[in-house]
Amino acid sequence: MRRHSSLFALSLTAALVSILACSKAKEPAKEAAKEPAKEAPPEPAKEPPKEAAKDQVEVFSWWTGQGEQEGLDAMIADFKTKNPGIEFVNAAVSGGAGTNAKAILANRLQAGNPPDSYQRHAGLELADDIKAAKVEDLTKLYEAQGWKDKLPKGLLEAITIDGKIYSVPVNIHRANLIWFVPKTLQALGISGPPKTWKEFMAQAKTIKAKGKTALAIGPQWTQKHLLETVLLGELGTDKYTGLWNGKTDWKSAEVTAALDMFKQVLSVSDIKSSAADWQPAADRVIDGTAVYTVMGDWLDGYWGRAKKLGYKTDYDVAPSPGSTGIYDFLSDSFTLPVAAKHRAAAEKWLIECGSVEGQDLFNPQKGSVPARTDADKSKYKDYLATALKDWQDPATKIVGSLAHGVVANNAFGSEIDTALGIFVENRDSAAFAAAVAKAYAATK
Ligand code: GAL
Predict the structure, then answer these.
(1) How far is the CA of 396 from the centre of ligand 1 (A)?
(2) Candidates 61, 298, 417: which one to mutate for ligand 1, based on the most atoms within 8 Å of Cβ?
(3) Which tops the pLDDT comparison, 436 or 53?
């Protein structure tokens, strides 16, 4: 078996020694006593003072927005305490779901200029990088850190190819959620969030009659996110999963019916004046112009932590219609790119990501539950306590997210993006289904 270079090279000692040996502050120049001022000879050009080469780690993500940055910051602070000799370079690029970040990252990887570690969703999104040999095998790091039996089996499978593990997951997010303000429902005479999309459409009539929008939505990735939750709610777990493994026929009558439901849901949304990102869409629910938004549980981080709103009093959440008992999961993970410039420091970052402390600092802020199974449950309160319970309940059915990299590789995902852009315009379910079926066959 080929041996890989050690994952635990000691890189910090040298950097620390050279920082401590940093040059002393210079004495102020003594004035020459009484000598008449001479024309100073031109000074030879000075070399800039040599700084002790500080070790650094450049970490790439898309967590810049409210509710996301706080989680990352919490983990960065812990990393800095544990690794005082490493400068943390936060290379986050704004834009929900990484729409902007992923494009920039692709260019950097293409140019052979990777950051030292980058965010990738567990699942087929990561598998693309593994197949393209963009990321290093982390199996030895897993063995050294004892992580293998600290992660759920299914999650480990989503980051493993040919027995090698390629990323370090920090969390589990749930995508299939519908969010609302209890007082808004009360004022409208609505007894609770809809249990099916059909019921949602019935509520939408009441909501429209009262001059409000039923569903706030944002840019295209949020529409894709909505699409996956409607497909899940209408088709159920097995048929939904079949959409991604070829077992469910996209052109079947039931998928067309589910797509028709998606069209209806869009028609009672504010898509014509859609919000710029997921946070401004969520703001419309808080200010009462819209009643619901479908979003992943990073919204709990935004409302509950960043905005300090009260769970159950100021906001509430339920499984998206038709998906009670189902966890449509995604997982943010960090990688070690091939040709990372600060490899040893990147490993330190990955150790932070994989640690109980790192995860328990990050996730309560971020609105996600820890990837590790041995995290401190007492840190997860309110919505997150129920999320953790549901995630760990053996009766919960688990499916993977489309919009967040689990079930579609990048080529298939971007074909769906193109088709969805057209579908949202022309609302032709059959044409969309045909385009996606064709794309699946072409990209699998
Ligand atoms: C997802 C990501 C989440 C959250 C969300 C909105 O793709 O996994 O952590 O950041 O986008 O930006």
Answers:
(1) 22
(2) 298
(3) 436
- Closest residue by Cα to residue 118 from 371, 329, 375, 338: 338
Smallest CA separation from ligand 1 atom 12, residue: 96
CB contact at 8 A, 240 and 401: no
Question: In this predicted structure, what is the pLDDT of residue 33?
Answer: 36
Whether the Cβ atoms of residue 223 and residue 420 lie closer than 8 Å to each other: yes
pLDDT in tens, 156-168: 999 999 999 999 9
State what percent of residues in the chain have pLDDT above 70. 88
300 CA → ligand 1 middle, Å: 12
What's the CA-to-centroid distance between 327 and ligand 1, angstroms?
Answer: 16
Please check whether residue 137 is in contact with residue 107, taking contact to mean a CB–CB distance below 8 angstroms. Answer: no
Is the C-beta atom of 68 inside 6 A of ligand 1? yes
Q: Which residues of 196-228 are buried (b: 16+ CB within 10 A; e: fewer)?
A: ebeebbebbeebeeeebbbbbbbbbbbbbbbbb
Return the ligand 1 atom nearest residue 171 CA: 9
Distance 241 CA to ligand 1 centre (A): 21
Instruction: Tell me if 97 CB under 6 Å of ligand 1.
Output: yes
Give the pLDDT mean for 409-435. 98
pLDDT of 421 > 80? The answer is yes
Read off the pTM.
Answer: 0.89
Ligand 1 nearest-atom number relative to CA 68: 10
Nearest atom (ligand 1) to Cα of 63: 10
Contacts of 327 (CB under 8 A, 6+ apart): 174, 176, 390, 391, 396, 397, 398, 399
Mean pLDDT score of the chain: 90
> Residues 334-386: pLDDT tens digits?
999 999 999 999 999 999 999 999 999 999 999 999 999 999 999 999 999 99
> Cα(287)–Cα(106) distance, rounded to whole angstroms?
37
Report the atom number in ligand 1 closest to the C-alpha of 119: 8
Task: Please report where in the chains the tokens 């967040």 appear, as a residue.
Answer: 404
